[in-house]
């Protein structure tokens, strides 16, 4: 059995919270522990607390700083250490740890999970330099991140966010009024205002349509909290929302059930850079279930979806595209093509897990 450490800053990687990055790490941990490895989450930027057992062979440790987390890394015999989500202020401490490993004969393999495309060129180049200096393997979650790594000849591989295999199980959607939904973070940068206006318009044109917004908000963000309260106050669109602190192990099953009962999922990303997982996990989950997805032409999404009618230039252009999809009601054939595309991309955990284990040197 090998011991593995997933290391990162606070809310960005804390497996007790809702989020795409956290889901990727939880799923990789689940796969690895199922293969006989043990996984420790080392979350810094949090008050020190006693270790917390999250699942069989999965343990959470919290530390106030990266330097205190590095003390455990120095003394525990890990076979593989994977870093992700390191704020700029933590770079000096992280570089000291990484530099200390360079000449150790017994050091762990070092990996970095490259999740978010940095907004600024200087940050992209800084990361490339760190990747080349210190890491044995970099894991890119999108084609454009991988292309950048290839350009600079960084030892790396692509791992799109993995989706549990039960998302791919066949489901009969039945003959009923269409169900249109938005799922995800409730915030300005997710295009939720566009979705609210769009769903109100669709509901007015199609009174039998079931329209829903569900997701999570950040209590510490004024904009996110204001949107949450606005959605609570209206009664045209069904809204179910909670704090990002409200994660529980049954949430994955609830997401799966909701996607299986949704005909059209609206994902109006204005941009992905500097904000979220570069190929959003929810997009892949919806595709895996055969749910039709309408999204925007940002980053790699047109390449991932591979159906031009399902991507629009901007969230404001979603109204006409959604109307056309509702008129056609061809959910079955469109969803089947999306599911086949997800299978082609190899995002099923039974496919992605073994590849990850092999590429990071744990197989």
Count of DSSP strands: 14
Strand content: 15-25%
Most strands sheet: 8 strands, mixed
Distance between the termini: 10 Å
Which stretches of 5+ consecutive residues score pLDDT under 50?
none
Word description of this protein:
With 363 residues, the chain is α/β, with parallel strands linked by helices. Strand 9, helix 7 and strand 10 form a beta-alpha-beta unit. Helix 2 packs across helix 14 and helix 10 packs across helix 13. The chain is globular.
In short:
By secondary structure, this protein is an alpha/beta fold. The protein has helices spanning 10-13, 20-34, 66-75, 91-101, 121-134, 143-151, 192-205, 222-233, 251-260, 281-289, 301-305, 318-328, 331-345, 349-359; strands at 3-9, 38-44, 49-55, 58-63, 80-84, 109-114, 137-140, 156-158, 179-185, 210-217, 238-243, 264-267, 292-296, 311-312. It contains 14 helices and 14 strands.
How is the secondary structure organized here?
Elements: E1 3-9, H1 10-13, H2 20-34, E2 38-44, E3 49-55, E4 58-63, H3 66-75, E5 80-84, H4 91-101, E6 109-114, H5 121-134, E7 137-140, H6 143-151, E8 156-158, E9 179-185, H7 192-205, E10 210-217, H8 222-233, E11 238-243, H9 251-260, E12 264-267, H10 281-289, E13 292-296, H11 301-305, E14 311-312, H12 318-328, H13 331-345, H14 349-359
Parallel strand pairs: 1-2, 1-5, 2-4, 5-6, 6-7, 7-8, 9-10, 9-12, 10-11, 12-13, 13-14
Antiparallel strand pairs: 3-4
Helix pairs in contact: 2-14, 10-13
């Amino acid at each position: 059995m090998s011991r593995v450490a997933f290391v990162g800053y606070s809310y960005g990687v804390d497996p007790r919270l809702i989020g795409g990055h956290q889901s990727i790490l939880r799923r990789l941990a689940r796969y690895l522990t199922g293969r006989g490895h043990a996984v420790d989450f080392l979350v810094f930027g949090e008050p020190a607390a006693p270790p917390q057992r999250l699942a069989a062979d999965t343990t959470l440790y919290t530390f106030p700083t990266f330097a205190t987390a590095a003390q455990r890394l120095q003394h525990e015999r890990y076979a593989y250490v994977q870093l992700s989500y390191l704020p700029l202020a933590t770079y000096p401490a992280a570089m000291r740890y990484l530099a200390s490993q360079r000449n150790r004969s017994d050091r762990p393999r070092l990996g970095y999970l490259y999740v978010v495309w940095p907004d600024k060129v200087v940050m992209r180049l800084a990361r490339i330099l760190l990747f080349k200096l210190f890491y044995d393997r970099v894991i890119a979650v999108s084609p454009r991140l991988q292309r950048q790594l290839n350009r600079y000849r960084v030892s790396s591989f692509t791992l799109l966010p993995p989706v549990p295999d039960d998302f791919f199980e066949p489901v009969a959607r039945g003959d009923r009024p269409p169900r249109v939904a938005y799922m995800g973070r409730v915030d300005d940068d997710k295009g939720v205002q566009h979705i609210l206006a769009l769903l109100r318009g669709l509901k007015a044109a199609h009174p039998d349509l079931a329209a829903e917004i569900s997701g999570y908000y950040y209590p510490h963000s004024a904009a996110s909290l204001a949107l949450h309260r606005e959605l609570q106050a209206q009664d045209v669109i069904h809204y179910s929302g909670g704090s990002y602190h409200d994660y529980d192990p049954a949430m994955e099953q609830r997401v799966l059930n909701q996607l299986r009962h949704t005909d059209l999922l609206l994902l109006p990303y204005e941009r992905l850079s500097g904000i979220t997982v570069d190929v959003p996990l929810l997009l892949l989950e919806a595709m895996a279930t055969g749910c039709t997805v309408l999204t925007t032409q940002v980053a790699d999404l047109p390449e991932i979806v591979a159906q031009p009618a399902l991507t629009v230039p901007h969230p404001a252009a979603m109204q006409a595209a959604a109307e056309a999809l509702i008129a056609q009601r061809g959910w079955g054939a469109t969803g089947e093509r999306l599911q086949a595309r997800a299978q082609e991309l190899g995002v099923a955990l039974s496919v992605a897990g073994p590849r990850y284990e092999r590429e990071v040197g744990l197989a």
